[in-house]
Automatic annotation (TrEMBL):
One GO cellular component term: cytosol
Cofactor: Mg(2+)
Keywords: Hydrolase
Identification of the protein by name: NUDIX hydrolase
SUPFAM superfamilies listed in its UniProt record: Nudix
Chain ranges of the Nudix hydrolase domain: 40-172
GO molecular function: hydrolase activity
Source organism of the structure: Psychrobacillus soli
The keyword Hydrolase belongs to this UniProt entry's keyword annotation: yes
Domain of life: Bacteria
Length: 179
């Protein structure tokens, strides 16, 4: 099987949130696709954060595109030259005030939507977390921290109280390590 060939590429726009690129591509059989749009986004990190008391640390925040509030695991994108591991430790501390003396456990790196997006999400598990700091939020962040009993997560997912895909997938990826 052969890959597609990029014949031409230009940016429709660039923003701090991501870029939209327009490509002309040649398929392996010679067909040409004009105006194939690619969303360029930075990779991001997220983590299931579990306290010693078996509570999962979640954040509740408004998500503009969906026009609703969501319960999610802490997440964010690495800053310049920051490792994924350092990024998730920083994001968890900033968003929730929680830290751990244990190293984050990498659960996996997964492309978000490889058909049209360039980024991946890198998911971690952080165990034995405890509250040590106040939140340090960006000017555009308004986040409430919620502690949810580990035993309540699946019911909350089934009842659509937690309906953000990356939170759900991270929970199920971590499940075998939480028992």
């Amino acid at each position: 099987m052969n890959s597609w060939k990029m014949l031409n590429s230009s940016y429709v726009f660039k923003t701090p949130f991501g870029n939209l690129r327009k490509d002309d591509c040649e398929l392996p059989d010679g067909q040409i696709i004009k105006n194939y749009y690619v969303n360029e986004y930075a990779d991001w990190v997220n983590a299931i954060v579990l306290t010693k008391e078996k509570k999962i640390v979640l954040v509740k925040q408004f998500r503009y595109a969906a026009q609703d509030f969501f319960l999610e695991i802490p997440a964010g994108k690495p800053e310049e030259n920051e490792t994924y591991e350092n990024a998730i430790v920083r994001e968890v501390r900033e968003e929730t005030g929680f830290i751990s003396e244990k190293e984050p456990i990498l659960l996996g790196e997964f492309y978000v939507n490889p058909a049209t997006q360039t980024n991946k999400v890198v998911t971690f598990l952080i165990l034995d977390a405890f509250k040590a700091f106040d939140q340090v939020l960006d000017p555009t962040e308004f986040i409430d921290v919620r502690l949810v009993d580990l035993n309540d997560m699946e019911t909350m997912i089934e009842n659509q109280e937690i309906n953000q895909l990356f939170t759900v997938s991270a929970y199920y990826m971590s499940k075998s390590r939480l028992t």
